[in-house]
Specification:
With 397 residues, this protein is mainly alpha-helical. 69% of the residues lie in helices and 2% in strands. It is built from 17 helices and two strands. The protein has a two-stranded antiparallel ribbon. Strand 1 and strand 2 form a beta hairpin. Helix 2 packs antiparallel against helix 14, helix 6 runs antiparallel to helix 15 and helix 11 packs across helix 14.
């Protein structure tokens, strides 16, 4: 369980409660509801198509699961298909409404980014305090203020990107301090995919400062020192990346890799059974036990992977298996549109950095538990607005 979480029959994070409160107060607001401008309609239209399809997929899931014999029963009401599907749908619905609220209030993008940075700063400082109180192998040590290390890792990568964007834009050296602090927090999460994205970030920034400005020493040297220090102290290269990704032995480090390979195989098996519309929203965990024959590796080590509800841990294959090729096409259409607005924009270093952040989300989703993370969608909205506001055609309309 992540910190800053309140249990109201179902665990809700503080920011989720604040969003719900904000949404519930909209009808009582005196401000006029802004009409979506013609330049922004496609962004919200594509998201609404995906949202509507998820609702259809929910009912598809109810039908498909009723037709099969579930091998493993999940007794908790929270693990019932009715609740699992509805909660997933409402998470996306709340995110969609929240983005509309941001759009409606015409909040300045730089203001939103700075709020993000300050929140990341508090989270990072909390993470540093865990060095004193918790061992480095503790789940809470890795997760910091999140539910797990992968959530925290992707968040701090995006925080690094946003701090770098503001540094390029404002040339304020305080952002270098923020970047270094967020790098430390990223390393603390021990998230393999986050460390890969961090390596790509270093490559991007160092290349820019070396080739374009030749002033990489100002930002490069401190980051290199921090990186080397943590590699030597926590053995990231050997244990977190190389052993996890390359070793053929079944160890605590390689467990997640073997587990995700099995999850991917089963996701593809489910897709073969329901290729067009998918098995239904949030149904993967219910179909997983039907493919127990794929889990012999875990059985050999006495690991009961059916003792809890399973997830794909890959957003693209999650959508493919649960929502079929139709759902994946709708989702990819939105992502392709988001890439296209960058390709046709008036590019500069700030926009390249913002696009890089969007790119890290696309990478992270290859080993990420869900596409319902609010901060991912807030970043995608920020990316969209920044690109659009830098576009000559958008400003002219």
């Amino acid at each position: 369980m992540s910190v800053l979480t309140i249990n109201l029959g179902f665990p809700l994070k503080v920011y989720e409660l604040l969003i719900l409160f904000l949404i519930l107060t909209i009808p009582f607001s005196n401000s006029k509801i802004s009409v979506i401008g013609k330049n922004d309609k496609l962004f919200f239209l594509l998201l609404s198509y995906f949202l509507m399809y998820l609702l259809i997929s929910y009912f598809i899931g109810l039908y498909n699961v009723s037709e099969i014999s579930i091998v493993k029963e999940f007794t908790s009401w929270r693990h019932s298909l009715v609740f699992a599907g509805l909660s997933k749908f409402f998470y996306i619905l709340i995110i969609f409404i929240f983005l509309l609220v941001i759009y409606k209030n015409r909040l300045k993008i730089d203001h939103i980014i700075k709020i993000w940075i300050y929140g990341a700063l508090l989270s990072s400082l909390y993470g540093l305090s865990l060095f004193v109180f918790l061992p480095s192998n503790s789940t809470y040590f890795r997760a910091i203020t999140f539910a797990e290390g992968n959530f925290a890792g992707s968040f701090f990568i995006l925080s690094i990107v946003l701090a770098t964007y503001l540094f390029f834009k404002e040339r304020n050296k305080i952002y270098i301090g923020y970047i270094i602090l967020f790098v430390v927090s990223t390393l603390q999460t021990s998230s393999t995919i986050a460390l890969i994205n961090l390596g790509l970030y270093f490559l991007f920034v160092f290349s820019y400062f070396f080739i374009k400005k030749k002033k990489f020493i100002f930002i490069g040297i401190p980051l290199i020192i921090i990186l080397i220090m943590f590699i030597l102290q926590l053995n990231y290269i050997e244990y977190v990346i190389f052993e996890k990704l390359t070793s053929n032995e079944f160890t605590p480090q390689t467990y997640s890799r073997f587990d995700r390979i099995n999850s991917i195989i089963i996701a593809l098996e489910i897709f073969k059974e329901y290729p067009i519309m998918g098995s239904g929203l949030a149904t993967y965990g219910f179909f997983f036990p039907l493919h127990e024959n794929k889990l012999m590796l875990f059985a050999e080590y006495g690991i009961d992977v059916l003792s809890y509800k399973r997830i794909v841990n890959n957003v693209y294959l999650e959508i493919l298996s649960e929502n079929g090729i139709v759902g994946l096409i709708i989702f990819l259409t939105f992502l392709i549109y988001m890439i296209g607005i960058f390709i046709t924009s008036n590019k500069n270093i700030e926009l390249f950095m913002i696009f890089f952040g969007f790119f890290t989300i696309l990478i992270a989703w290859n080993a990420y538990p869900t596409y319902t993370s609010l901060y991912h969608w807030v970043y995608i909205y920020l990316y969209y607005k920044i690109i659009k506001e830098e576009s000559y055609d958008y400003r002219k309309c």
